Description:
This protein is of the alpha+beta class.
Amino acid sequence: MRLSLSGCLLFIATLSGQTNSQPDFEALGRRALAAAASGQFDEALPLYRRMLAMDPANPGVRFDYALALNRLNRPGESLNILGTPKQPDALTLAAANHRALGQPRRALPLLRRAFAAQPTAPIAYDLGLTLLDLELYPEATRTFQLFAQDARCLVGLGLVAQATGKNESAIQYYKQAWKLEPKDASIPASLADLLSNSGALDEATVTYARAISLESNNASLLVKSARNHLKANRNPEAIDQLRSALRFDPLEPDANFELARLDESQRRSLLETAIAANPTSSQAFYQLMLHCRSIEDTRCADNARRSFEHLKSPHPKLRVDMDPPVLLVESPAEERRWGRYQFPTIERLADGRILATIHVEADSATAYGAPKLNLVTSDNGLTWRKDDTAANGAYGLRLKNGDYLRTDTPPALDVGSLQLPAPAGEFKMYNVPYHVYPLNQLPRDLRLIFFQRFRQGQWQPESTELDDSTGLRYTVQGRFPRIWWGDMLSTPDGSLLALTYPRIAPTQPFRFGSAAYRSTDYGRTWKMRGQIVDSGAPGSGFTEPALTLLPNGTLYAALRTTDGSGVLPMFESRSTDLGRTWSEPKAIAPNGVLPRFQRLDNGILVLSSGRPGVQLRFSPSGLANDWTDPWELIPTKSPRAESDTCSYTSLLPLDRDSFLIVYSWFHKPDREGRPRKAVFARRIRVVKSIPGMQP
């Protein structure tokens, strides 16, 4: 699709109702066009927004805004901005968005209309590919044949021939397309794939070599060439190309998998990397199971077997697809300390970008309030860049009055500077002593909870007293933390509800707990509503609560119990009276720290958690009473639960069926094969696979 802003500027004068601001409008247009033409679509977006605010009826600006969103991998937003398409460009763009969302049937009528109005080769190619996706082969063939001298349509004819088992015809089509576009590496790559699959290994070798000469750093292409060498029993050449692929992309899953079969000395680490890159590879789990059995590592073999069996028996109600992981950041090679390059979170900024924050200090009260590493993405997680100013924008819980609200964690106070009453007692967690003090005996400054509120274009700090007449607060490591961690949400009656920890009851043994609070003044004050009853929870009590509102109006919570005594279950509890009373907690998984929820517009409820590892579970009904077995996102190398990942995750919806997850992995290989602590983002799509279950 072409950029149309230069054309739109030609008729601004007749469309704009704000002639007094015409010079500003045109200046914005020139800046937006320059940014878009150079591929800087994220810089163009705010300019388009300003132009659209000045002239909401301008179809050229609306199209270019939608096009920029499409190029930034934001098809749902692009469709919303585009509105009802009428012109061929707009119809084609809307169809591209639907295809990106996995909706080829919605794309097809749009492309037919676009092609009827403007029968060009680019539209024919898009239409033909959509017909091919829908297995409408005769119509796809007729469409591509209308432009049989166009390289793209010749490739399309090759794809149709290949899909219908006419490999010789497909080979000829690819060769004709290659003559027309001799510098396009994708064409000889497709030809070489077909030659290799047809048994013409020597010709495939030559063709792969020519494709690689055009795109020498393409790891996937190197893997395909290596597999062709393996078919021809040329193992040394295959090994050389697989290692080259890993130098370009250490996470290339097929390169790791194939090299693991050839290099016994590195087999386990290569298979584990293949799994981390592609957690849906049942073959990789199976090979890891066999390898771990051969070295008598029962724990590893059992974990791999469970994942293999899970993947080989797809869930009857769901289909789950995972994109490759995208690296946000990795640590220096020598950094292995706990707390650094961990605990990632993601939030959608008000301007549509996504903000990621990553902890780079010790996991300690001494680091509360310390700056975090901030990164942003404008393309829904495909690319990330450091941006220390991004957190100045609006994000968090959007309130009905237009404010954004989030909890804040100020620096913990030095105990030596405080006048504290006598402690009520002491308890230990992770072998660290905690001293507790009655909240009602503390000075006001030590009874506060803290927030940040975005209004009038900036963040404003706020605080209010914690409402807990019998609760306790603690000191640890010589510091007095003032934390109130958990989830906040808006309720149907217009109030806000939060489920937070630590709530420490005044009875011994002292334990952490979680309590619900309600606000009726947009979060300026909070009243305790109820508590999740600690009826003999294992470990140190219920912590790190996740909270969501189910479609039936029930509040649903998931809670951590894992502590320094070892891996402990994750629990659930429900409330049908907006948090006043809660059901007795019951275990729902054998492990799980910092559970996170995300409800998708298709009705599916997502739950992420971990330690050990990182797991995803889904509730097809959305009612949290039918959780699936877990999908494992990374392999667990060590018997120590904290050795492979911090297991803290964060979720964000992308469209009706897709979400983004961020998580850490401590064994990401760099280009020299050294393990790095790293944080990844991964796009995951989950849909209901039974037609009758679609909402």
